[in-house]
Write the structure tokens for this entry.
Amino acid sequence: MLNRDVCFARVMEMGKILTMPAALLLVASLTLNLGLTLLLPGEMMNIAAAQPSVKEIGAPSPKPNEYYIFTQELNADESKLGVPVAVFTLTNIIVHKGDNVTIHFFNTADEAKDRHTYTMQSPYKMDHDLAGGQNTTFSFVADKVGGFTYYCRYDLPSMIGHLEVLP
Ligand SMILES: [Cu+2]
């Protein structure tokens, strides 16, 4: 009776030892597959969205979800390139649903006639149109999840940015 129990225990132990490498192989293969999946930008965003959000410590921003966006004229020949060479200095904003987003928008052009806008279509419909040298501050609640484009009405298709609202 005792011998059989001991024998059984040994068999169980052997089983554990034998299955360990198999389990490790499985984990390694899953990790590799996940690694390859991460290369796809869409998947990357999905995985990022699935992660619980972690508060950043020591962030340099004056307050959370506050952004400064300047206009910038690139040193390039617009007529030669065939597209507007003005850009936003900040072209990617990522926030979470429910965040109160504040944007300080500066038109850095010297001449008042060189206007730029910060424009979005529905559901974040807005249109902030500034003369050169002007700036404005506005806020909105990011209450709709998804990817949204902000752009300058005068400098399409090149003067655009992307707002990503994660769940
Ligand atoms: Cu513009």
About this structure: The first strand starts at residue 66 and ends at 73. The chain has two domains: 4-50, 66-166.
